[in-house]
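Please decode residue identities from the backbone states below.
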């Protein structure tokens, strides 16, 4: 089964707007479904509200998206990097763009900052208690929410490619 076409319009840091139509092949549909499941079941799609959850766990979950995405890209091979139009849009292009322009810069900044703060924890103070007392925890939660909004757009695209309704509207 081949979709008639998917309209893409997503604005990514450093790249700008990725916009156009393309007809995903079956391998792209299958890979999109796998990526979709991974993203909608992580903190990447659900808001981490103040005093809720762990910032460390949120960063770890986002970090795992790299290996998951790489694994899916390897599994489906070059077929998901080929495009059916003149605009060079493919599932692999979008997935790699999300990793390199959204998740990587975020983690490159916040992972070391949080790690440095975690290393200052005194004995007798819980990890979560220490994390919640960090003067940058609210800032990190706000940045996480900004990343989340981009990833929700991405998951909506993955849902469309997969031929399913998006469940992200039910997450808030």
């Amino acid at each position: 089964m081949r979709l008639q076409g998917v309209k893409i319009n997503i604005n990514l840091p450093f790249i700008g707007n990725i916009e156009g139509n393309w007809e995903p092949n079956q391998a792209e549909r299958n890979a999109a479904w796998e990526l979709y499941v991974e993203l909608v079941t992580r903190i990447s799609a659900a808001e981490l509200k103040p005093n809720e959850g762990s910032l460390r766990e949120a960063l770890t979950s986002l970090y795992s998206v790299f290996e998951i995405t790489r694994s899916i890209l390897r599994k489906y091979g070059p077929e998901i990097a080929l495009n059916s139009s003149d605009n060079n849009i493919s599932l692999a292009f979008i997935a790699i763009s999300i990793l390199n322009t959204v998740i990587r810069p975020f983690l490159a900044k916040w992972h070391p900052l949080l790690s440095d703060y975690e290393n200052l924890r005194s004995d007798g103070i819980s990890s979560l208690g220490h994390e919640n007392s960090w003067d940058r925890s609210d800032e990190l939660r706000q940045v996480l929410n900004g990343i989340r909004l981009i990833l929700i757009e991405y998951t909506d695209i993955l849902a469309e490619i997969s031929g399913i309704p998006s469940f992200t509207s039910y997450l808030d």
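Observation: The longest strand covers residues 6-12.
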